[in-house]
Design brief:
- The complex is a heterodimer of chains A (about 625) and B (about 325).
- Chain A has about 625 residues and is α+β, with helices and mostly antiparallel strands.
- Chain A has three domains: about 190 residues, Periplasmic binding protein-like II (D-Maltodextrin-Binding Protein, domain 2, 3-Layer(aba) Sandwich); about 120 residues, Alpha-Beta Complex (Dipeptide-binding Protein, domain 1); about 240 residues, Dipeptide-binding Protein, Domain 3 (Dipeptide-binding Protein, domain 3, Roll).
- In chain A, about 30% of the residues lie in helices and about 20% in strands.
- Chain A contains 17 helices and 21 strands.
- In chain A, strands 15-19-12-18-16-17 form a six-stranded mixed sheet. Chain A has a five-stranded mixed sheet with strand order 8-9-10-1-11.
- In chain A, a hairpin with a 4-residue loop joins β13 and β14.
- In chain A, α16 packs antiparallel against α17.
- Chain A is globular.
- Chain B has a domain of about 190 residues: MetI-like (MetI-like fold).
- In chain B, about 35% of the residues are buried.
- By secondary structure, chain B is mostly helical.
- In chain B, α1 packs antiparallel against α12, α5 crosses α7 and α11 packs antiparallel against α12.
- Helices cover about 75% and strands about 0% of the residues of chain B.
- Chain B has twelve helices and no strands.
- The chains are: A alpha+beta (about 625), B mainly alpha (about 325).
């Protein structure tokens, strides 16, 4: 009897749970329906991001700038959500940080000396202006008089030079020693510890500094200068190896940006107050609170108004929250692309250049072109990413507006064409196993490496394999499974012979010059591809003539075309960045988009309290 | 007693030494290193190679191990490559957070487990017992990360009773009263979510122990001698049923410092669990090794404490 009642009770409880869960689902559905109406009501000044009913969105319907034109109130504070599932590292200085999350924090209180236009070229609107001497190969920078550190000390030429001295020092153990620094004359010798002075740096007066370059290329003027001074009066007493761990970096960092750091809770939040002395003018807001927010709860935090702006919104959650009534979704084309790369050979470390192997499995361009024709990237973008990623055509994404050439006709999904190309090139199934053999009649198995991570990784890799399967190519995952991030790059970098093709992604960086990714001497040229036409165009893009912008654009258009012909890699998807912003926020633009003339001191709110969803 | 503890410690030392070696070798066997993830074409490849050399990543493993272990003996666990700070300092800052969270969780766990277990065992197969058992089944069946999310959704976002992330409200001065209160406020929800789920096994243990004990001969003896029902339960049965629980207590102490990745991520609470997973994914091996070693030591000590507690409460176990 007693046993029986226990079972009955359990059964009853199971029913209760069933109802509770069922109830939850029902509520959700109602909420979304209920929210649609108010959205129509307050859609004045709001971009209509509603698209077709099939849940496919298009980046063309998004704007990178908040459309709110309401009247800004005096003061107010906002909360910025740094979307991250870990803690931020807390090396809060441009000269010492490692990861991108730290940059998101730094941007609130510091900024580079130079500002950029929509093609990432330097302009004269930043904290410093500059004059170029092409003959001598030097640039002279003049820091504006009203640019001061948060402690009131002026930002000086000496501070700027000091950044070069610290980051270029043999004792420096961070990761910021890039070509931006090493291209300055005398820098390599200084880094090697051979001299104590850098010959290419000359301090002319307190606010003027001249940098002379080993090789003077157009790249320098498109975000190629290390423009992050380090306050010497604070750092000079700290040994260089102790700087990254010092309080001046982690506890009370300073800059010359629109906000000052007030307090930091390591790894989770930072409070900022306005810098009344900011050189562009006093900020509208009294302060900003930055806190780390987990991607799983970011939508709830936006709905409840707990955060006003977030660093980025997980695109896969967008379809469920597209009609959130209290925020506006800003969007822009990300400076990146996903691609399929083909392995051509090995890295020759002694010669410092790639060594393509003409007999490599993927050496035949027809095979590569057929593989491009065989995949339907638009379908991938729509099915897997709701249209927030879409078919890519060239290796310079449209985020570089004036360099991307959308007139180039890159292969798009056409399996019949793929089969035709393969047939003509001699890839024919001779032994009747359903798969094509190579022109010599040997069995052809292509080994495909793809990274793990996220829910989409596995179905996506399978989709590619099936697409190639349908045109008769046998493609298999390396080791039969996806590869973890570090292992993946370790194997690609070391030219693992088991890998024939791989799926990767590149952030393009601010300068369009592709030599760092596709040049003959680039370690990051993971495909190990090289061709003379490619060498020539890359060199042309960096030549003296290329200081003429229209010439440079022409060169890179030719280069994009060449890459579509020679196919060392083929780009698969371009992607969107989404940034939701509370409806009370005015003057916010996605910071990753270059050349927008809106700055953080202009940021303001139209009311004290954030809008809450459903009100 | 002391002999016993000393003997256990003597065994623990070589265990720890062996652990450190295994951990170190396994960490080095992971493909890639801290610099692998830096696939950034603006970085000078020569500078990256120089960094590898500088960090000693090209040395054979026994040289690296030698360097590392001699540092450890001097109390220097090395530098975190990602965080650019001393590993000891980094772990120290996370350890404090995790310690308080785990301590509160443990306290709540036992505050829930003891009464529920006793009621459930004392009145077993009654309606009360069935409700409690039902709850434990629910607890066993619910994954912690789902439960933590639901709790956060209800009590954080919907009712707004608790903060939704972080370990303390931004902008408060450490050491002030408001700071301490804010810390406790931030701790409550994650601790509660965790305790409500983890407590169920303790409830079940206690319940079955009590049911078991109350049928033993010495209880019948106690009753027949006229001991009151409450004395029988609170004194005779409860004490004896605590034995297996106290054995678990040692491992709870080890848990105090290991943290939980799920709860820490969901509540954006910077603790040890997060640090551990992150350090492995980013190949920040000095941190990963130090943490595994620390967890290992905590477990060895936890077992030791369990044994000591057991021998204190149960004279039969004591080793002569």
């Amino acid at each position: 009897m007693k046993k029986f009642s226990l079972t009955k009770l359990l059964l009853a409880m199971m029913f209760i749970f069933l109802f509770v869960l069922g109830g939850c689902g029902g509520n959700d559905a109602e909420e979304t329906q209920g929210e649609e109406d108010p959205q129509v009501e307050d859609s004045e000044g709001k971009v209509d991001e509603e698209v077709d009913d099939d849940g496919i969105y298009s980046i063309d319907d998004f704007d990178p700038i908040a459309s709110n034109q309401g009247e800004i109130i005096d003061g107010g504070t906002i909360t910025f959500g740094l979307v991250l599932d870990t803690a931020f590292e807390g090396a809060l200085n441009y000269n010492f940080y490692t990861g991108n999350p730290d940059v998101q924090v730094i941007r609130w209180f510091n900024e580079p000396m130079l500002s950029i236009d929509e093609d990432f070229n330097y302009t004269q609107d930043g904290a410093a202006t500059f004059e170029v001497d092409e003959e001598e190969g030097s640039i002279t920078f003049t820091i504006r008089d009203n640019v001061n550190w948060h402690d009131g000390e002026p930002v000086t030429a000496e501070d700027w030079a000091y950044a070069y001295e610290v980051v270029g020092h043999p004792d420096y153990d961070g990761t910021r020693y890039s070509q931006q620094l090493s291209s300055v004359e005398g820098m390599p010798a200084y880094k090697a510890g051979e001299t104590d002075t850098i010959t290419g740096i000359e301090i002319i007066d307190e606010k003027t500094i001249k940098l002379t370059y080993e090789q003077f290329t157009p790249s320098l003027l498109s975000s190629g200068v290390w423009a992050y001074p380090l306050p010497k009066h604070i750092f000079e007493d700290i040994p260089i190896e102790d700087m990254p761990a010092s309080d001046a970096v982690r506890v009370n960092p300073i800059g010359y940006g629109p906000f000052k750091v007030e307090s930091i809770v390591p790894g989770e939040s930072v409070t900022f107050v306005k810098n009344e002395d900011y050189w562009r003018g006093e900020p509208n807001l009294d302060g900003v609170t930055l806190r780390v927010i987990n991607p799983t709860v970011v939508a709830q935090a936006l709905q409840s108004g707990e955060v006003d702006i977030v660093s980025s919104f997980p695109a896969d959650q967008y379809p469920d929250h597209a009609d959130m009534s209290n925020v506006e979704f800003l969007g822009a084309i990300d400076n990146a692309y996903t691609y399929i790369g083909f392995k051509f050979g090995k890295w020759d470390a002694d010669a410092g250049e790639v060594a393509p192997d003409p007999d490599a499995k993927m050496a035949d361009v027809n095979l590569r072109r057929a593989m491009w024709y065989a995949v339907d990237n638009n379908a991938i973008g729509e099915r897997f990413y709701n249209g927030l990623r879409w078919n890519a055509t060239t290796l310079i994404p449209p985020s570089h507006k004036n360099y991307h050439d959308d007139s180039i006709e890159a292969p798009t999904y056409d399996p019949a064409e793929a089969e035709r190309i393969l047939d003509e090139a001699g890839y024919i199934d001779v032994n009747g196993d359903g798969y094509r053999e190579d022109p010599d009649g040997n069995e052809l198995v292509i080994n495909f490496a793809s990274m793990s991570g996220g829910d989409i990784a596995e179905p996506l890799a399978n989709y590619y394999i099936q697409s190639w399967d349908q045109v008769g190519l046998k493609v298999e995952l390396v080791d039969g499974r996806l590869v973890e991030f570090n292992t993946f790059y370790d194997r690609i970098e070391n030219d693992d012979p088991d890998i024939d093709i791989y799926q990767g992604a590149w952030g393009v960086g601010s300068d369009v010059d592709p030599s760092g990714l596709y040049g003959r001497n680039a370690v990051f040229n993971y495909t190990r591809f090289a061709s003379e036409e490619n060498d020539k165009l890359i060199a042309d893009g960096l030549s003296k003539e290329a200081f003429d912008v229209s010439y440079r654009q022409e060169v890179y258009k030719e280069w994009q075309e060449l890459m579509v012909e020679q196919i060392p890699v083929f780009p698969t998807l371009y992607r969107a960045i989404l940034v939701p912003v509370n409806n009370r926020v005015v003057n916010y633009a996605i910071p990753e988009v270059p050349g927008i003339d809106i700055h953080r001191h202009e940021l303001g709110v139209t009311q004290e309290e954030p809008f809450v969803a459903g009100e | 007693m002391w002999k016993f503890i000393v003997r256990r410690l003597m065994i623990a030392l070589p265990q720890i030494a062996l652990l450190s070696l295994i951990v170190f070798i396994i960490a080095l066997m992971m493909p890639g290193d801290a610099l692998t993830g830096l696939v950034d074409p603006t970085l000078d490849p020569a500078a990256i190679a120089a960094q590898r050399e500088r960090l000693g990543l090209n040395n054979p493993w026994y040289v690296q191990y030698g360097d590392w272990i001699s540092g450890v003996i001097r109390g220097d666990l090395g530098q975190s490559f990602r965080y650019k700070m001393d590993v000891t300092e980094l772990i120290g800052s996370r350890l404090v957070n995790t310690f308080w969270l785990s301590l509160l969780t443990t306290v709540i766990t036992y505050l829930i487990a003891l009464p529920l277990g006793i009621i459930s065992g004392r009145y077993h197969d009654s309606l009360r017992d069935q409700v409690i058992t039902g709850y434990t089944y629910f607890g066993f069946a619910t994954p912690l990360f789902i439960f933590a999310l639901v709790m956060l959704w209800i009590f954080g976002f919907n009712t707004g009773w608790f903060p939704t992330g972080g370990s303390v409200a931004p902008g408060l001065t450490p050491g002030t009263w408001a700071y301490v209160l804010s810390k406790i406020h931030h701790l409550l929800l994650p601790a509660l979510s965790m305790a409500l789920i983890t407590t169920v096994s303790t409830v079940q243990y206690l319940r079955s122990e009590i049911i078991d004990t109350k049928q033993k001969d010495f209880i019948i003896t106690a009753r027949s001698k006229g001991a009151s029902e409450s004395r029988v339960y609170n004194y005779h049965i409860f004490r004896n049923s605590l034995l297996p629980i106290s054995a678990l207590f040692g491992s709870d102490i080890a848990k105090l410092i290991s943290g939980t990745i799920f709860v820490e991520s969901i509540y954006s609470y910077p603790g040890m669990g997060q640090l551990f997973v992150e350090s492995i994914l980013q190949r920040d091996s000095s941190v990963a090794i130090a943490l595994v070693l620390l967890f290992g030591i905590a477990n060895i000590l936890g077992t030791l404490i369990s044994d000591v507690i057991l021998s204190l409460v149960d004279p039969r176990i004591r080793i002569k």
